[in-house]
Amino acid sequence: MLFLFIYSTHLVEIVLKFMSVQINYNSAYKKNSTNIVLFVDEKYSISNLKKFISASEYSFVLDLLKTKDLKKKIISFDISSKRKIILVSFKKNPKSIEAENLGAKFYDIFKELKQKEFIVSSETLSNRNRNAIGHFLHGIKLKSYKFEKYKSKKNKDKLDITVVGKNIPSIKDQSKFNALEDGTFFTRDLVSEPGNILHPDEYAKRINYLKKIGLKINIYDENKLKKLGMNTLLGVGQGSIRGSYLVTMEWNGAKDKSKPLAFVGKGVCFDTGGISLKPAKFMEDMTYDMAGSAVVVGLMKSLALRKAKINAVGVVGLVENMPGGNAQRPGDIVKSYSGKTVEILNTDAEGRLVLADALTYTEEKFKPKFIVDLATLTGAIIVSLGSEYAGLFSNDDKLSKQLIDAGEKVEEKLWRMPLNKNFDKLIDSKNADVQNINYVGGAGSTTAAQFLQRFIINKTPWAHLDIAGMAFSKYGGALNSGGATGYGVRLLNKLIEDNYE
Asked: Is the pTM of this model over 0.85?
């Protein structure tokens, strides 16, 4: 991803090359531009468009509108074989997500056409809607993401958009959009990488590169983790030839020394299930079992790029869960960083073991205002919520509401699930303090979250997001084209923007 900023004394022109979309800002407007995008109201009133198209084109469009389905948000008119006029219907005061979804829809409609160059007239939106243009373009860029790194023949087509007029986002707002897109795409890149490439050793190196944008990075390797006593995390990775790591990322953007906001992610780079081996069918999907950590990394990158005025810390546990002569066995008992002992009844319930040490360490080391952890933790949450909502488990009503509200605004939705002391009996162990799975059956996602809650020692406000159904989509969504979704980056960024900046 390349960001190129060109400044002139008379005209500011910003060229953004972003994946398969190139966006230019230019105040000059040519009436005879090849393809033009104009914004109208929900009733498709076009009287204000006369100065943007010729009289004959205006009459042509006005006449054809009588035959069009005005419930559609985007209508295209072929003026000639080389010229289109596209009308995009906006509400008077559209929500940000509505504008983004329209942008994504625009990309879907026109990415297959031979025409790849479009003029977007910002003047057809009122000044109070200037950010709607920004969100419209944001939606286009989010939808345009492709992961073609390993294809011999790459699709080199670019959608070239020039935004004309003065009704455009400010430089500051553009920078925020860019940072959020960069963080989201970084998350998608990480999740999309195959397990033979993005193993824990490589992953830790990639995170370390983020020092260049102002993040303070600390990498704890196996020797350091053994000294710290992080045996539940280490136990998951001990069957692999790859290393196991805990990586911390700190961003200090507040002027004071206020408590940081903490985000913790599960980074199981490949999950075979270990000795409790998974079935072969669909095991290839387990490359995305590190999606929770990728969200944390992408979020921290976004915060640094946009120079967020908060203090934040990201913590990720990076392991590979493999069978082998040194692999953890069902029935093993290990001592966690917290001092609590854990009986391993199933080595495929590994993510909670990684998070257990990471959560306690984060709480003790950074003393944060709150902790949000993210993990592709259970298949049970997919049974419950499918691919429409992530599961939310929390010990704090205020934090839960803030997360749910943020999720609604960016359409990364959450559904709160129960936690209760009565579930504890399902994970109490006869041989240790706690067992890592409920063998009685039922409440799979809740007992996993109940397990995690035991490692929040000092009652810090905490929320666990089970994103197993949201991190990867085979069929695509409103703002992604299938594959890694980047779910969580925009959600947590919105949480921070609305409540903590």
From this structure: yes
